[in-house]
Amino acid sequence: MQRIRTCSQLEEAVERTGILPFFKNRVAGWSLAEAIDPAVWFTSEEGPWEWKGQLAAGRRCVYGKFIGGKAAFVSPDCFGELMNLRRGGLSFEERLEEGLIPFNDKRLMDYLLAHPNVLSRHAKRECGLVKGFDAALTRLQMGTDVILCDFRYSFDKTGKPYGWGNAALDLPERWFGAGFFALPQERSPEASEDCLTRRILGALPGLDETALRRALRA
Fold it and tell me: Residue ranges of the domains in the chain?
């Protein structure tokens, strides 16, 4: 992969690969961390830590903990395939009826349904989960039910932002619009896995396909 030095190059890499994890993972060669120019990885200047919020807030990618419980960028045109694969073709309500949704996840989802584009620190304080908030939020992202749609910063007395930024949470269908990720009704989860695998291997043909498919299903 070409060395990534700018936000626009990151956006192009996400569009090309379809899914690009932020950090190294069990699929060697498939991450921003392995493709970024070290000069912009940790610096006082703007870099990938800021770019993620710009791309997510601008709806130029879908961002969240989608691969191995860790952050990844997904191109909007591929996210419907990931949704179909992870959800098994079922709605949240259908998965709930089949006992596939833990109680904490349902409680957090109920809160998020009533509070669009809410900061995670507010959700953690207000949703009623004394324990298990972070685990439930990760599971909802891995299930493609929740995305991180922005990062908002605190400011010092001079007006300069500081810290890592607090994530804003929303539902992908609400953030991008109802029907945005719709697929043909006959598309099976297996077909979506094949589609994503072809897209990623087309951009990065040297990846381990078996490991890649395992990471996509997780």
Answer: 7-217
Q: Contact 26/215 with Cβ under 8 angstroms? A: yes
Cross-strand pairs, 169: 118, 148
3-state per-residue secondary structure call for 11-62:
HHHHHHHCEEECCCCCCCCCCHHHHECHHHCCCCCCCHHHHHHHHHHCCCCE
What tokens were used for 195?
């589609």
Q: Which residue, 49, 26, 24, 50, is CA-closest to 35? A: 24
**CA separation for the pair 34, 63 (Å, rounded):** 18
Region of residue 5 (phi > 0: left; psi between -120 and 50: alpha; otherwise: beta)? alpha
For residue 94, report the phi and psi dihedrals to the nearest 5 degrees: -65, -40
Q: How many CB atoms lie within 10 A of CB 139?
A: 19
Give the tens place of pLDDT for each residue, 133-178. 999 999 999 999 999 999 987 766 776 766 667 999 999 999 999 8
Q: What is the layout of strands, in order, in the sheet containing 62-67? A: 19-21, 70-74, 62-67
Tokens of 140: 């909802």
Contacts of 69 (CB under 8 A, 6+ apart): 138, 142
C-alpha to C-alpha distances, 121 to 54, 117, 125, 202, nearest whole angstrom? 20, 12, 6, 39
Give the whole-angstrom CA distance, residue 143 versus residue 95: 11
The pTM is what? Answer: 0.94
